[in-house]
Amino acid sequence: MRLIPLLLAAILGAACSREKAGNASASAYTSAADSSAREDGMPGTNRGSALEAPRLIPAVQNQLNLMASGALKPNPDNLTAYKNLVGDVISSMIADVYRAGYADSGGFRALADSALDDLGGGAGTTARLDRSRLPQHIDRMRRLIAWYQQTMRKTPDAGSRQ
User: Fold this and answer.
1) Could you tell me which residues come within 8 angstroms of residue 119 by beta carbon, excluding any fewer than 6 positions away?
2) What secondary structure does DSSP assign to 134-154, as a single string?
3) What pLDDT score was predicted for residue 155?
4) Pairs from 137-141 (Cβ < 8 Å, separation ≥ 24)
5) Model confidence, pTM
6) CA angle (130 as vertex; 128, 135 as ends), nearest 5
7) Which of 100, 81, 84 has the alpha carbon at shortest distance from 160?
8) Nearest to 66 by CA among 149, 137, 143
9) CA 33 from chain center: how many Å?
10) Contact of 143 with 111, CB cutoff 8 Å
11) Which residues of 108-130 are buried (b: 16+ CB within 10 A; e: fewer)?
């Protein structure tokens, strides 16, 4: 009699932990745009078609607004966190754009590199911000976000993947 509740809990836990089949495609390493992988790959793996950058962009825009208004006083911890956020949003934008089937002509990557250089470079470098370059950095980040949003609006099904 004591085993019945335990057995029912185990069955319920196993049933609730199953993934829904509607979110499956061929490979855990491909996007929904890769039809050959869906056809040839292993059924039941996630296709990863959700856009990554839109959930990060509001946080970056908030930080840019605070920096532009002068309300954000840079300290090493905040600057490192901001630099990591900028790196994440840029990587996410690039992944989303490639996943949507667009290629970078080089302008986006160059602008992204300049925005990261404003903060002391890429991963593994110490975060630093030259206050005289702050307006340039804010402008670069806003142009990156605008370019990304404009490019993703051209994608027919981008809204359904967010």
Assistant:
1) 79, 82, 83, 86, 127, 128, 129, 137
2) HHHHHHHHHHHHHHHHHHHHT
3) 73
4) 137/67, 138/64, 138/67, 138/68, 140/111, 140/114, 140/115, 141/60, 141/64, 141/86, 141/115
5) 0.62
6) 120
7) 100
8) 137
9) 17
10) yes
11) beebbebbbebbeeeeeeebebe
CB atoms inside a 10 Å sphere around CB 133? 14
Helix (H, G, I), strand (E, B) or coil at 52: coil
Residue 149 is predicted with a pLDDT of: 92
Task: Provide φ and ψ at 34, rounded to 5°.
Answer: -90, 90
Give the contacts of 4 (CB within 8 A, at least 6 positions apart): none
- Mean pLDDT, rounded, for 111-127: 77
Residue 109 scores a pLDDT above 70: yes
Question: Do the Cβ atoms of 63 and 115 come closer than 8 Å?
Answer: no
Question: Residue 45: in which H helix or E strand, if any?
Answer: strand 45-46
Do residues 50 and 25 lie in contact, with contact meaning Cβ atoms separated by under 8 Å?
Answer: no
